Amino acid sequence: MTTFKSGRLYIIGAGFAGQTLAKEIREKGIYGEVVAFLDDDPEKIGRRMNGIPVLGPIRDVARLLRLHPADEAIIAIPSASKEYLKDIYQILKNAGFEKIRILPGISQIIEGDAHFIQTRSIDPQDLLGRTPVAVNLRQSLAYLRGKRVLVTGAGGSIGSELCRQLLSGGASRLYLFGHGENSIYQIDRELRLLQEEGVGEKAVLVPVIGDLKDREYMDWILAHLRADVVFHTAAYKHVPMMEENPVASIENNLFGTDNLVTAARNHRVKRFVHITTDKAVEPVSVYGVSKYLCEELVLQAAQDEAAAGVSGSSFMVVRFGNVLGSRGSIMPLFQRQIEKGGPVTVTRPDVRRWFMTIPEACSLVLKAGGVGENGNLYLLDMGEPVRIRDLAEQMIRFYGLIPEEDIKIEYTGLRPGERLDEKLWWDDEEPMPTPFDRILKVDRKLPGRPDMVSLLEALRPVCSLNPLQAGKYRDSALLREILKAAVPSYACEALSPVHG
Q1: DSSP assignment of 22-48, as one string?
Q2: What pLDDT is stored for residue 161 in this prediction?
Q3: Which residue, 55, 215, 221, 223, is the most exposed by fewest CB within 10 angstroms?
Q4: Which parts of the chain have pLDDT scores under 50?
Q5: Pick the CATH number of 137-444 from 3.30.70.1400, 1.20.120.80, 3.40.50.720, 3.50.50.60
């Protein structure tokens, strides 16, 4: 964690979050000295909060500041709209601030509980997209109090943010499940540091290294962990890479999910929340097909539980589009391209995607996990789709540069498995409102859903070596034919003769 002993800090926002930060900074005495609050509220301007002056309006007073090189601004207005944040950011940059930090959105600040350790350097995702919905996490997570919670893919973008927010849920144990040793180490270390600094509640953190593809291990680990709730985020997600490695995609995503669902049913997991994607709608990529079939697996498990008269278990699916800033997404790629001087690469000028911030998506997933019912598919309201070109131009401007003058934009064409526009629901699906803001329930009327038992049996010898069917092992051409027969929208051709 970075310290600022010699720095002078200006806190933007003299509300509950800013005052809490200032108090912590003063008590610990290691981050620097809070010189002043900057605020636009006439009722606060001219007052002193805990001995610290409140200056404003921000636009007027910022240009009068005499800054030192180490001076830093911390934006502590968790409820601020994106438009207001953009204005503040530009004001601070024009005033000469080189270091600007920000507190996370309102969904992560619980009842006035804000900590310096939660602040981080501002980046483009804080200023782009729509204003996130405010979710009362403590209220939303009440269903997890005292429960054992397992997050698969806990080291990934979605999984790690779920874990950060789950710290506030009062869970007795939080199992951090993942295949990558380093990513699980990183999130485990981060969560423990957050706890040490007073963020959230004292859930016992348990890192678990394992592989979803290992059916026997998944059954064993769920028997031993006795998890009450599972959030399943783990998946191979990179579309063009999965087109190059279709067998790996099906093996990990589909069979891994089947192993997890089976183990969850065997050991009476009470809530199973599967995270899926808009690319599962009328899928044209092997990744999209794998996620569509995972949706069917989970929803079929819900039906089987209900048909067997099993009570107390809920299996549900939450679908949403792209998230800003996830690993492997376009935002980190654009950042690297801008930092090296360009060009920024966009597939086509008219390609569009839906976007939501990772914290907002995770807050809504956690909310849906509590209010959702067995066998339902929920859709997060993604707002309006965004042109990728517009996103690239906004990111270039974030760095104080001019699109096409300072940083060129090049068009590379759609890659295998990609399409111009994604859909959030099938033609035979209908999103219905729920009492919960930005959470929709999908009324499914899809005819001719695949027979998952038969499909898994057909795919199994391609993904797992069976000496009696050795010729099918890792045969990506055969795998594609099986998938095309089961999911007609999938029509991508193999890129290369490399199998799996």
Answers
A1: HHHHHHH--S-EEEEEE---TTTTT-E
A2: 93
A3: 223
A4: 1-4, 492-500
A5: 3.40.50.720
279's tokens:
């690319």
Is residue 370 packed enough to be buried (19+ CB in 10 Å), middle (13-18) or exposed (0-12)? middle
In sequence order, which residues have a C-beta less than 8 Å from that of residue 94 and are 6 or more positions away?
62, 63
386: its two tokens: 């965004």
Strand pairing class (52-55; 48-49): antiparallel
Name the CATH topology of 8-122: Rossmann fold (3.40.50)
Q: What is the pLDDT of residue 109?
A: 57
Could you tell me which of 396, 410, 352, 354 has the C-alpha nearest to residue 379? 354
Write down the pLDDT at residue 185. Answer: 98
What are the phi and psi torsion angles at 247 (to 5°)? -65, -40
Where do the CATH 3.40.50.720 domains begin and end in the chain? 8-122, 137-444
279 part of the active site: yes
The answer to whether 478 touches 472, Cβ cutoff 8 Å, is yes
- Cis omega (within 30 of 0) for bond into 343: yes
What is the distance between the alpha carbons of residues 244 and 269, in angstroms, rounded to a whole number? 35
Structure-token pair, residue 317? 């699916």
Q: Which of 176, 172, 188 shows the shortest CA–CA distance to 151?
A: 176
What is the C-alpha to C-alpha distance for residues 458 and 479, in angstroms, rounded to an integer?
A: 9
pLDDT score recorded for residue 446? 66
Nearest to 300 by CA among 207, 411, 375: 375
The residue annotated as part of the active site, out of 237, 279, 291, 472, is: 279
pTM above 0.85, yes or no: yes
CB count in 10 Å sphere of residue 211 = 14
Question: What pLDDT was estimated at residue 367?
Answer: 95
In the prediction, which pLDDT does 447 show?
Answer: 65
**Phi and psi torsions of 175, nearest 5°:** -90, 120
In DSSP terms, 208 is beta-bridged to: 177
